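TASK: fixed-backbone design
INPUT:
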């Protein structure tokens, strides 16, 4: 075991599977069968997935669902969502349908700027560093020209390159802080390549300084404070009337209080934002974007004034209800997985092949829809009522219930709280009788 473990990455896919199955499973054949069941019969497609990461042994499926009814800036969308949690797609669709007849979602891009930093130590006089940096400016641009050429043709490139004195944070700590326009790509490779080239220039030119300069690292920042989108819905308070919203004025006030609680109280804000991310991550995944980057940025942004708060806001006037969301979303619609993964290509085509800005708008609207649906349920019926149907279905699937058993269980648990143990017991009794 130790030999194979040490050289695991060198083994072939089948050898890896043999090793894993025989080392960690009571029934190796069963373990191998599970992995193989999830392979794609189309060998080329399987190879494509094998090559996305390292040491691939199988595929891990997540459902791809579609939330219809989204009207965003007057355009209709069927939004693809990849998520394992039941009720999320239904909730998005329900909220989208509600808002479709009340003006739909309106969105605006606040910025699309990306950020990268070269972090370095310097122990000399900062005014001298300042002058040296000014002299390097043209070199930074000239020596990255081979990287920026194509991006420039697409209208993007390096925006600004600044020296930042960060010695108030850490002794001798300075940054080259650069901003970029990466057009429709997320731009991680582009930014990191530029930064490493800046760093190479800095290292080479460092002998012109009296102090010592040591480049520690060069990397993009996922905290994209100027790559921000806003999505909003708004209608007259009277128009909020709907099934389960008999008193729209009261609903609007309680809804606003729920949002305000999430602005004031971090314990609630985290769950509130988690609900927003249910929608955001699902579209981000479906469109082949990096959901870890999106998550990291969203939560840092939610804490930007020093306290973790809701990403959404609610405003009421005497007659009008407005609900909105503002958050950073560094997304791409070209590069990365977008042209490689067939389902990502499918999702983007379903969304009418959006630009990165349009995708930011669609994703933000989905997050807002999700948040609206959650708060509507929470402040009216409670969240469990909607979840119970799906929950019951999942339990019935697990227990491999046949159609008669399903009918009997549904009749028994109609309007009642559903628990796994309760359904199990009921089905056991049915099966015994
Ligand atoms: C569950 O995935 C998400 C909610 O908890 C969000 C919320 O509480 O606002 C329902």
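OUTPUT:
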């Amino acid at each position: 075991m130790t030999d194979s473990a040490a050289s695991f990455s060198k083994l072939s896919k089948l050898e890896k599977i043999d090793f894993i199955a025989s080392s960690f499973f009571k029934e190796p054949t069963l373990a191998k069968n599970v992995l193989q069941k999830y392979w794609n019969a189309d060998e080329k497609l399987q190879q494509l997935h094998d090559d996305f990461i390292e040491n691939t042994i199988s595929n891990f499926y997540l459902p791809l669902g579609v939330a219809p009814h989204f009207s965003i800036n007057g355009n209709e969308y069927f939004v693809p969502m990849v998520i394992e949690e039941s009720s999320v797609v239904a909730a998005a669709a329900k909220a989208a349908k509600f808002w479709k007849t009340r003006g739909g979602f309106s969105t605006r891009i606040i910025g699309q700027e990306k950020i990268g930093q070269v972090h370095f130590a310097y122990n000399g006089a900062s005014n001298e560093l300042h002058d040296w940096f000014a002299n390097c400016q043209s070199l930074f641009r000239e020596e990255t020209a081979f990287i920026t050429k194509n991006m420039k043709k697409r209208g993007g490139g390096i925006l600004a390159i600044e020296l930042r004195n960060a010695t108030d944070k850490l002794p001798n700590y300075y940054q080259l802080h650069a901003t970029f326009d990466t057009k429709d790509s997320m731009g991680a490779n582009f930014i990191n390549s530029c930064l490493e080239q800046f760093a190479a220039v800095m290292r080479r030119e460092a002998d012109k300084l009296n102090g010592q300069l040591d480049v520690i690292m060069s990397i993009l920042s996922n905290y994209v404070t100027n790559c921000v989108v806003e999505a909003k819905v708004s209608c007259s308070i009277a128009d909020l009337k709907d099934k389960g919203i008999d008193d729209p004025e009261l609903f609007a006030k309680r809804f606003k209080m729920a949002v305000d609680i999430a602005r004031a109280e971090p314990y609630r804000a985290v769950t509130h934002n988690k609900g927003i991310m249910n929608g955001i991550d699902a579209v981000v995944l479906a469109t082949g974007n990096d959901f870890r980057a999106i998550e990291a940025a969203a939560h840092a942004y939610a804490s930007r004034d020093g306290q973790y708060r809701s990403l959404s806001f609610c405003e009421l006037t005497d007659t009008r209800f407005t609900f909105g969301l503002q958050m950073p979303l560094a997304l791409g619609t070209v590069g990365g997985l977008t042209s490689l993964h067939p389902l990502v290509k499918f999702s983007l085509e379903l969304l009418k092949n959006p630009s990165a800005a349009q995708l930011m708008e669609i994703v933000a609207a989905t997050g807002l829809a999700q948040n609206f649906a959650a708060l509507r349920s929470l402040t009216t019926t409670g969240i469990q009522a909607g979840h119970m149907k799906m929950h019951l279905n999942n339990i019935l699937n697990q227990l491999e219930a046949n159609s008669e058993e399903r009918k009997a269980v549904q009749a028994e648990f109609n309007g009642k709280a559903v628990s796994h143990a309760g359904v199990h017991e009921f089905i056991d009794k049915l099966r015994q009788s």
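COMMENT: The chain has a mean pLDDT of 96.
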